[in-house]
């Protein structure tokens, strides 16, 4: 089943008088269980595409649908709930709420969903353990390394079992060794738990991990390994 | 629950800024509580002095006396009236009023003569306590008089000097007699200070040839009694008055300017508190705006992952509420000792040259009066102002759009 679908999506940013086309007719479909890397040169529209997928921005034309629902038809409130319940986010940096501990950050989406405390605790502790963060539950983000912070962010993103995890350059701010390990971890989660990932990167080494690589150039798909 | 602990931790993220904010709020609250207490103390003190030293709660005179205070315009059946008032559970004392000329050696002055029922008067006024030198009237010494402070100065009179009083009796005869100055008052109020000669009722009756009736009955009612109701009850005792109906007025009617001034002073307090707090509100506005702007990214991430605008709004509100709560506690704790001091010791206004208003020299020691309301109001206004000030930053935070926030550096 297609979880995420872009159909003829264009996005034009206006900067004063100048129109900057970020996406020019993007057609892309992501299936459940896929592990897809979005690559392409800087400015090719990766972030824009992920923002559309994450219901954080609206296309100038075309449709973005998640699990069959056209996002354009949803209210702000519905979009907020959709992000909370169906989408996991991992951003490039500053992902975590600095005043919350690793555990509290990881469980924050579950808490927002109103999942019962005991259930929450069990799920989040198991997840942190699996992500190699056992013993770090009570640390604040500033007491964690960049890689550990990203792992907490991944824990938060997948704890609520979303339909898809969107990660915009999740490894951009860590060294290459950590980057490899994070991607390995994401891959493992994809294989063992069936988590659907769509992430962007400009790191060529990632290609080794991704099962599907979609290359954007000038806001449209230039190459798709699945095609 | 999580929101509350998040808010609390956020408050202490920039502990210096929060502490300055809290200290400013606590200080403003402390100032306002003490200020309100002092003003309340002044109001009650002035009202008390006006009532206690001069007019009483109610004054009864014969109908028409207020417009034309003639010597023979008296309440004729004062015995029945006093009994009636006593029966209502109020305190009453009659006074005899007249005018004349007084002289000590070569100095003379026009005077107001006040004849007093010494025993009853002591129950309705504390005027005797304002004696500066000598002693108060005594029914056993009918030729004693007590002079107002400035009158004594005008006449260059001293205790034990002889005072000659000249007037016209009720029967038209020349009234004159010689008295001994037993005491001289301290400052009470213009009318008493400048021109009053207190004498016993017996001496007055003899001098002015007025065997019957009184000009005025001063009434005190128990604290908390509705004055208009009390006045109506006293008026209802009128039936016994054969010749002239009585005229009952409350002190508020007799001293309307003082009454309105005291009333408006209270309202003015609220305005002053409001103005003081505007400065505090600006401080809060600035502090909370800074707190929001320096974590735009973080708030953007929160909104992206599913925190709703209402939750973010509540978070910012909770953060300032917590600071206000701490400040309120601190302000109240700081106010306790100063409240105690001002209520029990007070400020000696003699040091400030005394205070006088509306012809009343009112307080010698200015003490604060603290009530639940006098504490509640500054607290309430503080919270109101903080609430108003934090609205904009909180709305700003609630409306952050994630993609813009995450671009923001
Ligand atoms: N808010 C914006 N305003 C104006 N132009 C934008 C904005 N966001 C992105 N762009 C432009 O859109 C294009 C695609 O950007 P982006 O999606 O960030 O690409 P990538 O993530 O692949 O580097 C770029 O030319 C970029 O400058
Ligand atoms: Mg990008």
Describe what you observe in this structure.
The complex is a heterodimer of chains A (227) and B (409). With 227 residues, chain A is of the alpha/beta class. Helix content of chain A is 34%, strand content 29%. Chain A has six helices and ten strands. With 409 residues, chain B is an alpha+beta fold. The model of chain B has no long low-confidence stretch (mean pLDDT 87). Classes of the chains: A alpha/beta (227), B alpha+beta (409). The site of magnesium ion (MG) has 3 residues of chain A, from α1.
* Continuous helix count of chain B: 14
Major protein interface:
A-B, 25 and 20 residues
User: How many strand units of chain A?
Assistant: 10
Task: Write down the CATH topology of the domain at 2-66 and 163-224 in chain A.
Answer: Rossmann fold
Task: Give the count of structural domains of chain B.
Answer: 2
Helices, strands, pairings?
The complex is a heterodimer of chains A (227) and B (409).
Chain A: E1 2-15, E2 18-31, E3 35-39, H1 46-53, E4 61-66, E5 69-70, H2 76-86, E6 87-90, H3 102-113, H4 117-130, H5 146-159, E7 164-168, H6 176-193, E8 197-200, E9 212-217, E10 220-224
Parallel strand pairs in A: 3-8, 3-9, 6-7, 7-8
Antiparallel strand pairs in A: 1-2, 1-4, 4-5, 9-10
Helix pairs in contact in A: 3-4, 3-5, 4-5, 5-6
Chain B: H1 2-11, H2 15-55, E1 58-62, H3 78-87, E2 91-104, E3 107-116, H4 118-124, E4 131-134, E5 144-147, H5 149-154, E6 162-168, E7 174-185, H6 190-195, E8 196-200, H7 201-208, E9 216-220, H8 227-235, E10 246-250, H9 251-254, H10 256-293, H11 296-305, H12 309-344, E11 347-348, E12 356-357, E13 360-361, E14 365-366, H13 372-398, H14 402-407
Parallel strand pairs in B: 3-8, 5-7
Antiparallel strand pairs in B: 1-9, 1-10, 2-3, 2-6, 2-9, 4-7, 5-8, 6-7, 11-14, 12-13
Helix pairs in contact in B: 1-12, 2-10, 2-12, 2-13, 10-13, 12-13
The complex binds adenosine-5'-diphosphate and magnesium ion.
